[in-house]
Amino acid sequence: MTDNTLPTCLIDGEEVPFTPGQTLIQAATAAGKYIPHLCWHPDFAAHGSCKICTVKADGRFGAACTIEARAGMTVENRTTELDDKRRTLLQLLFVEGNHFCPSCEKSGNCLLQATAYEVGMMSPHFDHFYPDRPVDASHPDVLLDFNRCIMCELCVRASRDVDGKNIFALSGRGIKSHLIVNSESGRIKDTDFSAGDRAAEVCPVGVILKKRVGFAVPIGGRKYDVSPVSAQVGAQAPTREEA
Amino acid sequence: MADRKLRVATTSLAGCFGCHMSFLDIDERLLDLLELVEFDRSPITDIKHCGPCDLGLVEGGVCNAENVHVLREFRKNCKILVALGACAVNGGLPAQRNHLDLRDILAAVYETEGGLARGARIPNDPELPLPLNQVHPIHEVVKIDYFLPGCPPSADAIWKFLTDLIAGRTPHLGHGLIHYD
To answer: What's the mean pLDDT in B142-150?
Structure first.
């Protein structure tokens, strides 16, 4: 299976080939190996902000989406130590927003939820913030529920880099960081956003939701209900060289 | 395992009893369970106060002063206390009032909502427990030993959890049984 012409690194004791320039998560994904992640997406430049993909590469912690694979590199990924840290990061995300899965139509298709299942998050552990984040239902075809935003900036990247519309941005600093809509009113209806945009389908959680299709697939039959996220690693390697 | 039966208490705080219904959904496995446990305070026995127990299952978060008293009674009496279901784990649906002002909510429900009797007022009987400003998951009030998420956790999840725990294993749910929805 291993292509002998390619250099390899060692992820959790398994040889993983890579093309020079590939990041660890790109190489792992191409080899069908799962590295937990939220803000990384194979079609977009790495963001390196959520830190869920943190691995130990040659003994040092780092985000697998920003570390270039090197020949002979030894990488720890799904160890108890790392999954414990990932669980803590997820718990922090859960208590910072309002993540009520039973009333979220993204439930079962949500990468945040699936990742939390994957690392066995049984409780939020910390005290909840219960922030006040009004929804924006002004657009005829799309609903924005900011309660669930984890600030991965995938919609920012998609709208800017693919759709060329630059509709989303993060505003504020630190704990006051939040997603905003780039229109004078701040409302999505006053932008040229459309349900066909890449940004409309890239949200890993339940912030950007197309209207009228929320329960087309019933709870229980959804993406991560069928099999865990770790069993759904895309066979196709991201080929684009990341900057 | 102990040669006596384990004593189990259950309660629903700011919950809908859906988790208790799901518990009953273990169906005939209830008979197997009753070989191993006996119930103390629970809607199943109608015992009103909790005595010393091995295991306490708490459904629902805390939304009023009485919930806090009951939760503390459980913590005081139960060696192992379990948050059963989404509301106990993160506040759940009742906690979705948390960004609203309590006075505004009560006024909307009891005074200004259409179809109310003339002169309707916010109930203020001394027997009514005072609502808290916000609904909280139970781990924000007392120490919780185990969490079983789900709205509700499925009967199979509850069964797996209880059998693991009774057998002295750390409960492990795995894919298909761990659910937040």
So the answer is: 98
Within A66-222, residue ranges assigned H as helices are: 80-96, 111-118, 154-157
A201 Cβ partners below 8 Å, 6+ apart? A208, A210
* All CATH 3.30.70.20 domain ranges in chain A, comma separated: 84-212
Total structural domains within chain B: 1
**Within a domain: B19:** yes
The residues of B whose Cβ lies within 8 A of any Cβ of A are 83, 86, 89-93, 95-96, 98-99, 134, 136-137, 139-140, 144, 146-149, 151, 172-173, 175-176, 178-181
Mean per-residue pLDDT, A201-210: 97
> If you search the block for the tokens 């659910």, which residue do you land on?
B179
Whether the predicted pLDDT of A188 surpasses 90: yes
Q: Cβ–Cβ of B95/A127 closer than 8 Å?
A: no
Measured distance CA(A218)–CA(A204) in Å, rounded = 18
Q: Which residues of A touch B83 (CB under 8 A)?
A: 123
B174 within a domain of the structure (yes/no): no
Domain spanning A84-212, CATH class: alpha beta
